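Researcher: We're teaching a course module on how sequence relates to structure. For the next exercise, students receive a sequence and then see the predicted structure as tokens, so they can try to spot secondary structure elements on their own. Here is the exercise chain.
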Amino acid sequence: MAIVNWKQYNKTKAQKILSELNNLSKNEFFDRINNWSNYVKYSLSEEYVKIREEVIAEYNIIDSIRIYKNISRRASDSSNYKYFFDLRLGLALHKVLSKYGFTERQAGNIKIWNYLTVEVFLDYVVYRLDWNEIENVSIKSILPNRTVRTKLSTSWSYIHLSLQHDSNNVPDYELTNRILHKNSTDTILQLVDRVGSGYYKEFSRVLMKEFYIVYQDVGTIKVGKVVFFRTLMMLHLSFILEIDPRLMENGYEGYCKYLIEEAKKIYG
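Model: And here is the predicted structure for the students to work with:
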């Protein structure tokens, strides 16, 4: 495993860099973004260029997917576009960064995400915007204002909290992709923001598997996935005050099945 000395930007530094980009004309800005892969070869260290190239390879993105002048309104207006972008980018980030010693400790450092956002993957952050946002893009809005997460860190956290493993306890990104494929951006919001204190990744990873399984049986749940998952997370935040999932029969699996059955009762 290669260990990286992760570079960091505080918010002031990151915003200063974005402000400089904001002084470009719109055409100049999008020309810079669409040629970001060439630009970073001269602005980043070899280590970060390699990380970026590996993430792109994992994401399997085509450079012209969102060329500004030829952008597809239909694709960018789709409610699924952002979710699949977040899902694929999160999988790629998690898989590649872990090879370089990226752990929960680094993930909890917003300064590392600031650097990755404005120096390494700024084009991805812009590509993630929908049509209206990209037409009226405000560079300063790319970094969070009051939250402790960036778009990149949220995507990484979603995968980390949902990550599945094979029988040898090796991360199984193909299986993770499969169980998450039909979810939505609301699922990301609910999971990342409401999983509870203490990170509880053991719980959330089981929950995402059980949530996937229950929706394979068509007709079992009489409400949409977004509403049902939101209900599960609200129940969890209520139950966790009095229940230790590890002490339930069958541990986290038993607790997640219990949550699902309690949620079913709400919707008959």
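Model: If you want an answer key for the exercise: The first helix runs from residue 11 to 22. The two ends are 50 Å apart (CA to CA).
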